[in-house]
Structures are given as C-alpha cells and as structure tokens.
Design brief:
- The protein is mainly alpha-helical.
- The protein has one domain.
- The protein is built from 5 helices and 2 strands; from the N terminus they run H-E-H-H-H-E-H.
- It has a two-stranded antiparallel sheet.
- The protein is elongated.
C-alpha cells in the first residue's frame, strides 16, 4: 500500500508537537508540585515555629532537654512580619526572624557583612553559630532538628522575600 505524499512528514510533525505538548504539561505539573511542596513546607515551618510541632532543644553546655513549651521559636522571636509582630518585638529577647532580617547582610564585630542562607540558618539553629562565625548567646537553645524540618522552618520564615 502506497502512502500519500507528505504523510511521513505530517506524522513526524504530529509526533514533535505531541512531544512538545507533553514537555509543557510535565513542566507545568512540576511547577505546581514545587509550589505545593513549598506551601506544605511553609505550613510545617509555622507549626515548628509556634510549637504545635515540638522540637527537642538544649541550652549550650547542658545535656537535659528543655521542656517543649520553652523550646518554641515563638517564645523569643517573632516570625514573618505582621503588624502584631512588629509591635511586640521589643518585648521579646530575640530578634525578629523573617526574610528581611535573615537575608539582610549584617556586619558583626567589625567583620564583613554576611546574611543567612539555609545552611547558615540551620547551623545557627543546631550549633548556635551565626554566618559571621559569632557564637549566639547561651540562652539561644541548640535544636536537634533534621534537614527537612530545618528547611521547612526556613521556608516559613523567609517565604515573603522583599
């Protein structure tokens, strides 16, 4: 049986179009998945921040874990900036933890300005050492937090990038 002239070319064109459409659909699905994952991470980070999902922590130099209600980030810090958080911060012992304060380069003890990124944030939370290699106060708990939960906390705190 003989093919009509140009039939092979039309089939190849349809195949290329089908491949392009599939690639576009896959990239849209991937973007939606990443966005949903980020929303899930931010929600989990909010639970970690306010203590609804407890974290284990100790004070520097101590082996006994703190009671869960005293190891909440919100105990000492405000999170992403809200009018309430801005007005309540001076009464809290720790600085605000939001995108503006975490990502703004800051010079400590005459050193070069540095800002937090995910790795530096997790190091500070776990070990009490900031990005300028300055040891945080002993009153800042050292948290036993895995990479997934630390990234969720970071996502919550920095989700509103200026």
């Amino acid at each position: 049986m003989k093919q009509a002239p140009g039939a092979g070319r039309r089939r190849a064109t349809r195949t290329v179009i089908a491949v392009i459409v599939m690639a576009l659909l896959l990239s849209v699905a991937a973007a939606v998945w990443v966005a949903c994952r980020g929303l899930g991470a931010a929600a989990r980070g909010a639970r970690l921040f306010d203590g609804r999902e407890p974290l284990t922590a100790t004070l520097a130099g101590h082996a006994t874990p703190l009671p869960a209600q005293t190891a909440r980030c919100s105990q000492c810090h405000t999170g992403p900036v809200t009018p309430i958080a801005v007005n309540s911060w001076p009464a809290l012992p720790g600085p605000p933890l939001d995108s503006q304060h975490l990502r703004a380069p800051l010079s400590r003890r005459g050193g070069p300005p540095v800002a937090y990124d995910l790795a530096a944030f997790c190091r500070a939370v776990r070990e009490g050492i900031d990005p300028a290699h300055v040891i945080l106060p002993r009153t800042m708990p050292r948290f036993d937090i895995d990479d997934t939960r630390c990234e969720a906390l970071w996502t919550h705190l920095t989700r509103n990038t200026p």
